[in-house]
From TrEMBL:
GO terms for biological process: methylation. One of its GO terms (cellular component) is mitochondrion. It catalyses: L-arginyl-[protein] + 2 S-adenosyl-L-methionine = N(omega),N(omega)'-dimethyl-L-arginyl-[protein] + 2 S-adenosyl-L-homocysteine + 2 H(+). This is Protein arginine methyltransferase NDUFAF7.
Length: 448
């Protein structure tokens, strides 16, 4: 039997497809999350960064198996329907020691071909095509996009293209080189840089040329911060973590907002408040009364890692076009707070969602839903052309155009959906991935 993780009761919401596997018991070599938090308090985003990306013990650092790889493409048109597909996945799991499959892997090469086609239709080929991929996992997206360009683009496009992968995990960086190297001619056009994409210094100088940035299921794994308010109306406070004396437990500490990244993020999250309606005013007064009668604490997770990455990318690659896909919604989340993550590990071959993010010990994936409308606001803000940055009303308000599409809509527009259809018409790419979306952002030419 297989268990599809992140499925709603109606099985409509499927994210990374996670298969049961024997639990690999790493605890003797894992750091305790406590070692991650010393005597000095740290922000929640630093705790998450370490739990996922610590060089020695982080979830992604050592285990190339944290991203599942299929030996060969699935022949969907030879499968009868949904149950045959699920059975096929179950067998795959039995043969492989993997944690989960992402869509680019499950639907290879078709998923990446859709992305390549979107680039081909939009790119300006007066300059050589340059693609950056952040968090390329096993390298499947890179290889398939280069295959597509080799087979479908004008000769000069493939001949002159470069593909730069920025990958934080050394084991995955190595895997990417192997995957792309399956086609010898790709290697001279491909480079993997093993580094943290959030770190501005790693990007060197500004690259002023037009380019593409691809990020598939990366935003969900970026560090977030937690903010807290003791009731419905008090201002937000930032959450820090500290050890309790000599005891192993970690506790949360609430401090007034001071961290500039959190403050910038909250400002963007609050932007809509400028356009307060009468309805909002009524809600606000009701909150005021409720906070006196029944004070209820609030917690919200803020995408500070996403904000940091977009700030860095807009600075380093000012003419970038962006394609990102991620979860718009995650079902059955146990962690409290708005926009809270799933924290998933394996126990005895079963996927178990943890109740506390503080229990993530390097064997647990921590992933968040993406609020795509907030992503768009952050992107506009980081591109530097929001209203607040312009003095004159005649100045262009923004220099990017964006669109958010359901995965099915994106694949119907740019992909080859017939290739992922089973005999009875069931199409897992279109029918199951209802909780994932694509975000595209391209620079406009009206910047002065
Ligand atoms: C969930 S996996 C997705 C892999 C691949 N994009 C896919 O869809 O199969 C997240 C990937 O992002 C990488 N990653 C996460 N944070 C990163 C960062 N700050 N800089 C570079 N790579 C990062 C991880 O190591 C991993 O390869």
């Amino acid at each position: 039997m297989i268990s599809l993780r992140r499925s709603s009761p109606s099985s409509l919401y499927v994210g990374r497809v996670c298969l049961r596997q024997p639990f690999r018991f790493f605890c003797s070599t894992f750091f305790s999350s406590v070692d991650n938090v010393g005597d000095k308090p740290i922000l929640v985003r630093d705790f998450i960064h370490s739990a996922l990306y610590d060089r020695n013990h982080g979830y992604f650092a050592k285990r190339s198996g944290s991203v599942g790889v299929l030996d060969k493409s699935i022949k969907f048109n030879q499968l009868q329907g949904r149950s045959a597909y699920l059975q096929y996945l179950d067998n795959l799991y039995k043969q492989n020691d993997i944690s989960w499959f992402t869509p680019v892997e499950l639907f290879k090469p078709w998923y990446a071909y859709g992305i390549a086609e979107a680039i081909l239709r939009t790119a300006n080929f007066s300059v050589p095509l340059k693609i950056y991929e952040v968090g390329g996992g096993s390298g499947t997206c890179a290889k398939c996009i280069m295959d597509y360009m080799m087979l479908n683009a004008p000769d000069r496009v493939y001949k002159n293209m470069t593909y730069v992968s920025v990958e934080i995990s050394s084991s995955l960086a190595k895997k990417q080189k192997e995957t792309v190297g399956e086609v010898g001619s790709h290697l001279s056009r491909f480079r993997v840089e093993c580094r943290d994409a959030l770190d501005r210094s790693g990007w060197g100088n500004v690259d002023p040329q037009p380019c593409w940035v691809i990020m598939l299921e990366v935003l969900d794994n970026l560090p977030h911060d937690l903010i807290y308010s003791p009731n419905q109306i008090s201002p937000w406070m930032e959450v820090w973590l500290k050890k309790q004396g000599d005891r192993p437990q970690i506790s949360e500490l609430y401090k007034p907002l001071r961290d500039p990244l959190i403050e910038r993020c909250i400002k963007i999250m609050d932007m809509d408040r400028d356009q307060i309606t009468w309805g909002d005013r009524i809600v606000s007064s009701t909150r005021h009364i409720l906070s006196k009668l029944v004070p209820k604490s609030r917690r919200a997770w803020t995408p500070t890692g996403c904000m940091q990455l977009l700030e860095v990318l807009h600075w380093a690659l000012p003419k970038m076009s962006l394609i990102a896909s991620d979860f718009s919604f995650l079902p059955d989340v146990k962690i409290p707070g708005e926009n809270a993550p799933l924290v998933s590990t394996k126990k005895n071959g079963r996927t178990v969602d943890l109740d506390s993010y503080l229990d993530a010990k390097g064997d647990a994936d921590i992933f968040f839903p993406t609020d795509f409308s907030l992503l768009k606001r952050i992107d506009h803000h980081c591109s530097g052309w929001l209203k607040e940055h312009t003095d004159s009303p005649s100045m262009p308000v923004k220099k990017i155009r964006t669109i958010t599409l359901d995965t099915a809509a994106f694949m119907e527009e740019f992909g080859l959906p017939l290739k992922t259809r089973t005999k009875d018409g069931y199409n897992p790419l279109l029918d199951d991935f209802k909780n994932t979306k694509f975000y595209l952002s391209v620079p406009t030419h009206n910047t002065k």
